Amino acid sequence: MRLAFFAVLPGVLALWPIPTTLTTGTSILVLSSTFTITVNVPNAPQDLLDAVSRTKTYLATDNLQRLVVDRGASDAASFKASPALASLTITLQNTTSVLPIATEAVKDFSSRIEGYTLAIPNTGAPAVLSANSTLGLFRGLTTFAQLWYTWNGTVYSNVAPVNIVKDSPAYPYRGFMLDTSRNFFPVTDIKRTLDAMSWVKLNQFHWHITDSQSFPLSLPDFPELAQKGAYSVTQVYSPSDVQDIVSYAAARGIDVLMEIDTPGHTAIIAASHPEHIACSQSSPWTTFANEPPAGQLRLATPATVNFTTGLITAAAKVLPGKYFSTGGDELNTACYTQDAKTQADLKSSGQTLEKALNSFTQATHGALAKLGKNPVVWEEMVLEHTLMLSNNTVVMVWISSMNAASVASKNFRIVHAPSDYFYLDCGAGEWIGKNPTGNSWCDPFKTWQHAYTFNPLANISSSQAHLVLGGQQLLWAEQSDSSNLDSIVWPRAAISAEVFWSAKQPNGKALDGTEAQARLHDVRFRMVQRGVKAIALQPQWCALRPGLCNLDS
Amino acid sequence: MRLAFFAVLPGVLALWPIPTTLTTGTSILVLSSTFTITVNVPNAPQDLLDAVSRTKTYLATDNLQRLVVDRGASDAASFKASPALASLTITLQNTTSVLPIATEAVKDFSSRIEGYTLAIPNTGAPAVLSANSTLGLFRGLTTFAQLWYTWNGTVYSNVAPVNIVKDSPAYPYRGFMLDTSRNFFPVTDIKRTLDAMSWVKLNQFHWHITDSQSFPLSLPDFPELAQKGAYSVTQVYSPSDVQDIVSYAAARGIDVLMEIDTPGHTAIIAASHPEHIACSQSSPWTTFANEPPAGQLRLATPATVNFTTGLITAAAKVLPGKYFSTGGDELNTACYTQDAKTQADLKSSGQTLEKALNSFTQATHGALAKLGKNPVVWEEMVLEHTLMLSNNTVVMVWISSMNAASVASKNFRIVHAPSDYFYLDCGAGEWIGKNPTGNSWCDPFKTWQHAYTFNPLANISSSQAHLVLGGQQLLWAEQSDSSNLDSIVWPRAAISAEVFWSAKQPNGKALDGTEAQARLHDVRFRMVQRGVKAIALQPQWCALRPGLCNLDS
C-alpha cells in the first residue's frame, strides 16, 4: 500500500477533488455483477435512496476505460483471480435526526456536514461508507463512483484497497456561477450543469438569473417582468422551473444562491416598469453603463425602493437557502446625474446619491432579514461605497483577487470569484461591435492551470482566515449559450472544486497542477461518458500517457 | 428597391457570403404552402435532385425567426395581402455536358464553375435560378435557402424582390482544415461539418488526417498503420468511411484535400513500422519535435522513401480530387543528426540531409504526378528548404501571413492559412504539461473580427495576384474533439468563406466587420436551427438589435 499521489503510473487515481486523507493499494477489485448498496439508515430519505440508485446507474453505465495505452486490456487477465466486491454499506453515524440531503444542503455554511469515511478492502469484504449526515453520505457515494473503470463489460478498480479515513471540505462554499440573462439556458442545461457540479462536490449554484439584457425569471407577484423582459415566452424560468431546479440541485447537495442584481444591471426592467429605470437605453451607452444597454433602478425614488424590496422578497421567499444576492456591481453615477427624476428625488429628500444607495441597500437587505436570509453582494458595495452593511453580509471579490485582503480587513466574509483567475468567459475576443481592438476585457483565457494556482488565503492573515467561505468559477454569458455551455465550463470549473475542497494534497503539500493533470483528464473523460461535453485538455496520446507531454519529458 | 447593404434595419439581410452583385427590396413575399422547385435540367444528376430536396427540407424545417425584437410578429400582418411564391425554376444554361455536382466540385481550380444568377420577383411570379454548371446551381440553391424566415408556421422573405445578376467566387479555394490525429472526430462530426461548410459555400475540406499522435486512416494496402496507430479500433476511418466522406462532401460542392504529413509529424508510424522512424519518442521531446511525441520518417533511407511513396499513392488514389498534401512542416534536423541509421544512409549515398529531403520529396511528388495529381505543401518546403519543386505545387502559408509575399516571389500558388489570422485553436491556453507560463503558442484567440480583416492580396503584386488560390481557417485538435468541434469552429470558419468568395461588398467597398456582424448572427442562428452548435457572438439582446451594441452606439 502506498499514498495515492505517488501512483502516477500506471494507475492514475481518478478521485476529484482529492480527499483529505487517502491510502490506496495496487490490487484489482472487480465489482460483482450482483453488487448492491445497502442503506443502513433508519427512515432513509428518498433523495438518499435516489442518490444510491444514481450511483448504481453510473457504475453500470459509465463504461469508462482506464486512461492508459491499452485502456485496461492487460488488467483483464487478473479479473478472474481477483476478489469481487459484492456490496457497499452506507451508514449514518448520527441517527437522531435523519434529514434529506436536500435539507442538509441548504443549511447555513457552518452547519453543513459534508465529511465522510470510506473503506474498500481488497478482499471482497463489504465496503463501508459512513458519515454524520445524508449529505456526507452523498459526497462519499460520489467518491466511490469515481474509483471504477470498465473493460469489456467488467467494472473494476485497480487501486484496491482504498481507505479514506477522513474527507471533508476545506471551505464550505464551492460554487459555480451562471449568467442566464445575456443569453438564455434551458432548464435541461442547468440540470446537466448541476449534475456535473455534484460529481466534483461543488455545492453552490450562484444563479445570476437577471441582468440588463433579459429578465427570464417569472415570479407570481411580478409576472410582467418576464412577460416583457424575457427574450421570448419560451426563454422564461417559470415558478415551477425554479422549484424544479432548486429541488434538483438540493437533492444533489447543491444550494441555489439566486442573484437579482441591483440597482445596476437592471435596464430590461424598463420594458415593464419604465418608471423605475433611469437612463434607459441612453446613448452613448459607454457613458452610462459598462455594457449595453444602459439603465439602472432609480435608487433614490421611494416607489422604486418599494418595488425593489418587493421584488427581492418575491424571489428570495421561493428559495430554501439562507443567502440571496442583491448584486451591487458596476453602479454608474453618470446615469443618475443626468436623470431628472433621481435628481429631484435626491433634492426633496436632502440625500446624496451615496446616502440614497445606503437607504436602498438597507431596504433590500432588510427585506432579506425579514425572511431570515443573509445578503450577498459584489465587492464594490464594501470597497467603493460607504454603506452600513451588516457583517453577516457575504462579499464576492471579482475585480481582482488582490481585493480580497481589503474586504477581509473590513471584517466581511468572502467568496473568491476573481476575474483574474476564475472568469471562464475571458479570452474569447470582444463581443462589443465596431470595436477596433477586439480583445476580451479580461484577456487572457483563464486556463485550468492558472486557476489551479489560486491561493484562497493569499494576503489574508490567519486571524482573518475564518472569513474566507470559499470561491467559485463564473460564466458570464455574453458569448455563451446552450451551444458551448459544457465546453466552456468543463472540466475547468472542476478546478475550484479541488482548490476549495482539498486545498492541499493528502500528503500535506500544496496542490500541484502537474500532479493534478492526469486526474483532471479522468474527470473530463468520465463527464463525457455521462453526457457532459467537457473539452479535451490534450491530445488523447497524452491523456493515455501521463507525464509524457510535460515540457520536461 | 435599394442596395441591400444599406438595409441594416429592420431587414438585415441574411446572405453569407454576400453575393458579388445584389439588389433587394422591402416587400414581404410568402413561400406558398405548395412551393415547388422545378428542375429544368436534362438528365438531372441525382446529387442535384438531392440538393433540391435538401433545400426544400431546410425551407420547411429551418424555422428561423428574424433577428429583430419582435422576431417577425409584426410581419405577420402583411402575410395575407402579400404575394406567395409558388415555385423556383432552376435552369442549366449549358446542357451539352450535364455533370453531377460531385464531378464539378473536384475539378481543378481553374475549371470549377460556381457562379449563378438568381431572380426572385416580389409579385409571386416564379423565381429563377440559372447557372452554367450543376455546382453553380447548388451554390444558388444555398443562397435561396438563406433568404427565408418563419413566423408562426409561415415561411417568408422580407426583402423581395431579390436580384442577383451575378454571383461567383473571387477565389477558387475556400477551405476548412480539420486535424483528426491529435484527437479523433467520428464520421458524423465530419459530415455535420461538411454540411455547415456547404451552407457558406466553402469548397475545400483539408483533411489533416494523420500526425504523430495517431494514424486513424485505414488503407487496404497499409492496414497495419491504423491497426497499430489509431487510438482504438473504433477511432479509425475505414476505406468505406473515407469514401462516404468524400462522396458526402462532393455532393455538397466540396473537394477533399487529404494530407499525410511527411516526413515530420509521423511518430506514430513507429507503432507498426519502427524501422522507418528516426528519434522515435526520443527524450527530451523538445529537442526533437515541436510537440510530443518525437519521431520522423527516415527520409534518407531508400526503404523508407519507398514506403512513403507507396503510402502517399495508396491514400491519394482513393480520392477524386486533383490535389494531395504531403505536408512538410516543422522538420527537425536534430532528430536526424542523432539517428545513426540516417547518418549511415546519408554517408553511403554521399548526400546532405537537404539533398536527401529533396530526393524524398521528389519521390512522393513523383508518385502524385503518376496519379495525375498536384502536390500541396506547407510553406517551409519552399521558404526553409532548397528543393526542386514543380511550380504546380500549391503552398500553404501558416507561420505568418507576412510570408505569403515570399512564396509568391518564388512563383508558387498560395493558400492562405496564416496562424496569425485563421488558427481557430489559438488562445485556449497551453496544453503541454508542467509548463509554468501556460499560454497558447499562438495567443491571442483569433476573433472573427480579426480574421475578417484579412487581405488576401496584402504585399502581393498585381502580377502575382493570380497565384493566390484562396485560403482557409484551421482547427488543430490538441484541445478539441467532438465535445467542442461546432463551438470552436462556427460561425468563425464562415469568415474565410466571405473573405475568399465575396472579397468585397456588392457596392465595391472593402468588407467591413461592422456591416457583417448582423449577417453573421443570422448565419449562426440558422446553423443552430440546423443542428450545428455554433456559438453566440453577443447577448441575444444585441443580436436582435443590430448596431445597438456597437462601441459608438
From TrEMBL, chains A, B:
GO molecular function: beta-N-acetylhexosaminidase activity
GO CC terms in record: membrane
Domain of life, per lineage: Eukaryota
Catalysed reaction, written as an equation: Hydrolysis of terminal non-reducing N-acetyl-D-hexosamine residues in N-acetyl-beta-D-hexosaminides
Sequence ranges assigned to domain Beta-hexosaminidase eukaryotic type N-terminal in this UniProt record: 15-147
Active site, UniProt feature: 330 (proton donor)
Any one GO biological process: carbohydrate metabolic process
Keyword field contains Hydrolase: yes
Domain Glycoside hydrolase family 20 catalytic: 171-503
Similarity-based family: Belongs to the glycosyl hydrolase 20 family.
This protein's UniProt keywords: Glycoprotein, Glycosidase, Hydrolase, Signal
InterPro entries: Beta_hexosaminidase_sua/sub, GH, Glyco_hydro_20_cat, Hex-like_dom2, HEX_eukaryotic_N
EC number: 3.2.1.52
The protein's name in its UniProt record: Beta-hexosaminidase
